[in-house]
Design goal:
Oligomer: single chain
CATH topology: Nucleotidyltransferase, domain 5
Helix content: 25-40%
Number of strands: 15
CATH superfamily: ATPase, nucleotide binding domain
Structural class: alpha/beta
Radius of gyration: 20 Å
Mean pLDDT: 87
Number of domains: 1
Strand content: 25-35%
Number of helices: 10
Strand order of the largest sheet: 3-2-1-6-10
CATH architecture: 2-Layer Sandwich
CATH class: Alpha Beta
Largest sheet: 5 strands, mixed
């Protein structure tokens, strides 16, 4: 999951978010990738609650609509997984031989993962970050099996093949590594969605740290609704008006300012968690993307509290597209929504 490569079998990247479901098709090979198709549909209301799929039928119907929209014959799917049922933990253990590492990892997972070990899918990755010859750094990745099986059932129920289940944060990192290359800079990636911000820190093509931060665009909507005493629909309209620099009541601006600060501080906590893992090297910058990434003043305030400069994440830095098929205006429109889907579409069947 932690390195990028291309598929001999063409695969579709499926990014199921709280506010939108996205599909990405790439034509890839020999170090290049070209956008073949992109589909976007609003996530059906109440189909995802608390970060988990609550209405599989509604999600299934949305996926079928996207497949029809893309007019694709591809059946192979790489899907992203996120939410409270996923835990990623970096640990350091005494260096052991590969043939006994799996047993050691299982024991370590029982100590660090707050789920029943029998009820999780467990992966581990040996990082190259340890400075001690006697120790090794491990990234533990655990996901509740019911979440994984539910995704697989939904996809196979659409007459598709679920060939890769990946963490959305890893897919985000995969997209970054392909587009920006492997380098020694420690870079933070933020994909700001409706309910969740995927947060990953990468270096030399490795994910050093990641977590799903429980804040996003809906945080602003909910705060406006609560503070202004208006419906969520009205609050969403006020938020969008403010972020597009339209005139709004001063109370709305005050709420947005306060929420921006609290969201930025929540993300700052993730920076602090990363520092607490014993990581060496300061974060050189952060790249920001996602449907809610255009929140006015958000990135600049995050730079203020973290001290790290910000840039817009460009998932099309190396991913090509035909201007005869996709206008530049269309690419600019979809750019904030593509990173995870592109990272998934770069996977290959049986990737693990």
């Amino acid at each position: 999951m932690l390195s990028w490569f291309f598929s001999s079998k063409k695969i579709i990247g499926l990014d199921i978010g709280a506010s939108a479901i996205k599909m990405v098709q790439l034509d890839a090979g020999k170090g290049s990738a070209t956008l073949n198709g992109f589909g976007f549909i609003p996530t059906p209301p109440q189909s995802i609650v608390g970060g988990e799929i609550a209405d599989p039928t509604a999600i299934s119907n949305a996926i079928k609509s996207l497949i029809a929209e893309l007019k694709t014959s591809r059946k192979s799917i790489a899907v992203g997984l996120w939410g409270s049922g996923v835990i990623v933990k970096k640990i350091s253990i005494p260096r052991v031989d590969e043939n006994v590492l799996a047993d050691q990892i299982k024991w370590e997972a029982e100590q660090y993962i707050p789920f029943d070990i029998k009820e999780i899918s467990l992966e581990h990755y040996v990082l190259k970050t340890s400075t001690s010859a006697e120790m090794m750094d491990i990234l533990l990745v655990a996901a509740k099996k019911p979440l994984v099986f539910r995704l697989i059932d939904i996809i196979t129920g659409c007459d598709l093949s679920c060939d890769v289940v990946d963490l959305s944060t890893f897919a985000l990192a995969n997209c970054y590594t392909f587009n920006y290359g492997k380098n020694s800079d420690v870079v933070a990636l933020l994909d700001v969605g409706a309910q969740i911000t995927n947060f990953a820190i990468v270096q030399d093509g490795q994910v050093l740290f990641c977590r799903d931060v429980p804040v996003g665009g809906f945080t602003f909507t909910a705060d406006i609704s609560r503070e202004m005493g208006v419906s969520l629909e009205e609050a969403e309209g006020l938020k969008l008006a403010a972020f597009s620099n339209q005139q709004v009541p001063s109370e709305v601006s005050n709420v947005l300012k306060n929420t921006t600060e609290s969201v930025a501080e929540e993300i700052q906590n993730s920076f602090n968690f990363f520092g607490a893992t014993g990581a060496t090297g300061a974060i050189s910058k952060f790249l920001i993307t996602g449907g809610a990434s255009g929140m006015s003043g958000f990135a600049d305030y995050l730079t203020q509290v973290t001290g790290a400069p910000n840039e817009i994440f460009d998932p099309f830095m190396r991913v090509k597209y035909s201007t005869r098929k996709f206008s530049r205006e269309y690419i600019d429109q979809i750019r904030p929504y593509c990173a995870v889907g592109i990272g998934l579409a770069l996977r290959k069947k049986d990737d693990s």
